[in-house]
Amino acid sequence: MSAFNVVRFRVKPGQEAAFVDAHRDLAPAWPGLRRFALVQTGASSFCLIGEWQDMASIAAARPAMGAQLDRFRALLEDLGGGLGVTDPVSGEAVLEVQQVSAPTGP
Q: Which Pfam families match (predicted)?
């Protein structure tokens, strides 16, 4: 099964487009990364979801992910509660479901 990392961000007002552009320009080539998506979850809140081959791939990429974060850290607000500017979690998938479209027509 795959492993996933999820990171929550809150962007400073007016910096949303710059934040999205910073991720568009990332194009990481980290071993084990299958894909990632940046999801806007509110006016200034975002969540990044990465799908990886396994947890070892995530662990190996953490230094590089931290370096990428430094490129756009100034665009982020502190999340509060001692979290800093990110709220990251990761783990192995325990269930994966692929939606299959229902047939259309007779």
A: ABM (PF03992)
The letter for the amino acid at 53 is: Q
Considering the domain boundaries, does residue 37 fall inside one? yes
- 90, 58 contact by CB (below 8 A): yes
Looking up residue 7, the CATH number of its domain turns out to be 3.30.70.100
- Domain that includes residue 26, residue range: 3-78
The Cα 91–Cα 72 span in angstroms is 25
Total of domains in the chain: 1
From first to last of its 106 residues, the chain has per-residue pLDDT tens of 899 999 999 999 999 999 999 998 776 678 999 999 999 999 999 999 999 999 999 999 999 999 999 999 999 999 999 999 999 999 999 998 888 877 776 6
